[in-house]
Design brief:
Layout (H helix, E strand, L loop, with lengths): L4 E5 L4 H10 L11 E7 L1 E11 L2 E9 L8 H10 L5 E6 L4 H6 L3 E2 L5 H10 L6 E5 L1 H4 L10
InterPro entries: GNAT_dom
Organism: Pseudomonas maumuensis
Pfam families: Acetyltransf_7 (PF13508)
């Protein structure tokens, strides 16, 4: 297996992430105002977006190619993207995905920056979603430690 690298895409290469999402039939999109990150093992095998918001970042578009799942690609990609930030990272997910994100050091939250709170309220009108946050302190603490938030 080729070594895995996780890097930020230059804005001029955003189309590569869009192509990766389309190639796998994902509805994910590379947000124009955010940072795009990719995991590569020769080719792109995972991607995600981090959009700057008040107090941190909003993680969207996290997707790993189906045949690469179960190899900690998402974990390595998220860690590479948020490790340099001292701010929080929020995401919205279906409740069934909460255990997956908890393994990546995210915890459920009801405290969100206003732009995310209003967006979540809109999304929840038609979808079952929860908000989760990863603070830098929780990223370095053991999962399940209630003092890590």
């Amino acid at each position: 297996m080729l070594p895995l690298t996780c890097t930020r895409l230059p804005p001029s290469q955003r189309r590569l992430l869009e192509h990766f999402y389309r190639q796998h039939g994902s509805r994910m999109r590379a947000a124009g105002e955010g940072e795009q990150w990719v995991a590569r093992a020769g080719e792109i095998v995972g991607g995600m977006n981090l959009t700057p918001i008040e107090g941190g970042h909003w993680l969207t578009g996290l997707f790993v190619a189906p045949h690469w799942r179960g190899r900690q690609i998402a974990s390595r990609l998220v860690d590479a993207a948020v490790v340099e930030s001292s701010a929080a990272t929020w995401l919205f997910c279906h409740p069934d995905l909460a255990p997956f994100y908890q393994r990546l050091a995210f915890v459920p939250t009801t405290t969100l920056p206003q732009p995310l709170a209003s967006r979540l309220a809109r999304y929840q009108r038609s979808k079952a979603l929860i908000a989760m946050v990863r603070s830098q302190s929780s990223a370095t603490s053991s999962p399940g430690n209630s003092t890590s938030v």
